[in-house]
Specification:
Number of helices: 18
Protein name: IS110 family transposase
Strand content: 5-15%
Organism: Streptomyces violascens
Order of helices and strands: EEEHEHEHHHHHHHHHHHHEEHHHH
Pfam families: DEDD_Tnp_IS110, Transposase_20
Strand order of the largest sheet: 3-2-1-4-5
Oligomer: single chain
Structural class: alpha/beta
Shape: globular
Number of domains: 3
């Protein structure tokens, strides 16, 4: 076999080629893109001889991008190595903490030569699954960015205009109508001058119910007395508030547009029907779960393997007389977030899920641990459905947890 370590950067790749004995065959600095891939193929042809593409093994610290997809399309075995795993592996070479790109490429080649059985190959996901992953991750990232921007806006308002937080509490400060009103009156003085006839049309444009009552509540809250800052300082705060508000409005627009893209790509996927049959999963949650699990049906050898990847299964720490079972905290956070959402929603959608959750709570298991255990069970059910290509069935899914029938 031919073992390759690929230490990638934004504009280049440092690679090292080894044989099965660990002997260094070649090293090169390759440019990103078509030219770099062509040179890599030349190196492999020169040193690989008559090897089949599947006998070329590449270790690289990413599982995304056109470079990785090209390696997979070429038929090579590609292993995406967690940077934390790579860092621990490199410690065997030196304790000083020294680092170089060539040294990193050498370590990655050694990892796929020595520890390949402990690594996970990059999944051979379909084009449809990769498309779902791109839009689902982008959609979630935009939501996270909106939350961060909202927190900055809220912090700013608390410092100079707390009345606005109370006035727009019922609307939510991430809603576009509340933000438009805040832009219209970004200072306490301007807010106190807003009339109901100015507020109501904004609420009407966004189809708010009980507009007159809401306008009256907002006006009253904005006219509450509060401690004042110097005019120049207030103006500076107002400029910062307006900038944050406009950014959240733009994010709202893009989140809505990306949501449509997520739904469109997800519903085209052949596994969408199975995912949507699961309790607690809608189009957005389903797209997120599918994108993180992928659709390579040979990737997870068992339900346990899928649960371990999801991070829902516990880990055991045993040493001497000590034996503890703990939750996994090193995991795919995007997938964990989606599965937590599914488990919460499944409490209403599935009687079996509700019984299972209540059973955990009756054993004095806390809210989050019980929800995590439910999520773990749902991942196992999903694995079975995907393996057998069948949709979810409530009776079959919870048959082992059903109450015994009285004779």
């Amino acid at each position: 076999m031919l073992l390759i370590g690929d230490d990638w950067a934004e504009d280049h790749h440092d690679v090292e080629l080894q044989d099965e004995a660990g002997r260094k065959l070649a090293a090169a600095n390759l440019p990103e893109g078509v030219a770099g891939i062509a040179k890599l193929h030349e190196l492999i042809a020169r040193h690989g001889g008559e090897l089949e593409p599947a006998e070329v093994v590449v270790g690289i610290e990413t599982d995304r991008g056109s470079w990785v997809q090209t390696l997979i399309a070429s038929g090579y075995q590609v292993y995406a190595i967690n940077p934390r795993q790579a860092a621990r592996f490199k410690e065997r070479y030196a304790s000083s903490g020294a680092k170089s790109d060539k040294g990193d490429a050498h370590a990655l080649a050694d990892m796929v030569r020595i520890d390949r059985d402990q690594l996970r190959p990059v999944a051979g996901d379909s084009d449809a699954a990769q498309a779902v992953k791109v839009v689902a991750r982008t959609h979630q990232t935009l939501i996270w960015e909106r939350t961060r921007t909202f927190q900055r806006l809220r912090s700013t308002l608390r410092e100079y205009f707390p009345a606005a937080l109370a006035a727009y509490a019922d609307l939510s400060l991430t809603s576009t109508d509340a933000l438009e009103l805040l832009i219209k009156a970004p200072t306490p003085a301007a807010g106190a001058k807003l009339t109901r006839t100015q507020i109501a049309p904004v609420l009407a444009r966004h189809r708010r119910r009980h507009r007159d009552a809401k306008a009256a509540t907002i006006q009253t809250a904005l006219r509450e007395r509060q401690l004042a800052l110097p005019e120049q300082v207030t103006a500076a705060y107002a400029a910062a508030t307006t900038a944050h508000a406009r950014l959240i409005i733009a994010l709202n627009e893009q989140i809505a547009a990306m949501e449509e893209q997520v739904k469109a790509h997800f519903l085209k996927h052949p596994d969408a029907e199975i995912y949507l049959s699961m309790p607690g999963i809608g189009e957005i949650t389903g797209a997120r779960v599918l994108s993180e699990f992928g659709d390579d049906h040979g990737r997870y050898a068992s339900a346990k393997a899928r649960k371990n990847y999801a991070g829902t299964s516990p880990i055991t720490r045993a040493s001497g007389k000590s034996h503890t079972v703990q939750a996994r905290y090193v995991r795919n956070n995007r997938l964990a977030d989606a599965l937590q959402t599914q488990a919460f929603c499944a409490l209403r959608a599935s009687p079996g899920a509700r019984r299972y959750y209540d059973k955990q709570r009756a054993r004095d298991v806390g809210y989050n641990p019980a929800l995590r255990q439910l999520g773990n069970r749902l991942v196992g059910i999903l694995h079975g459905c995907l393996k057998t290509r069948t949709t979810y069935d409530e009776a079959t899914a919870w048959s082992h947890h059903a109450h015994p029938q009285l004779s």
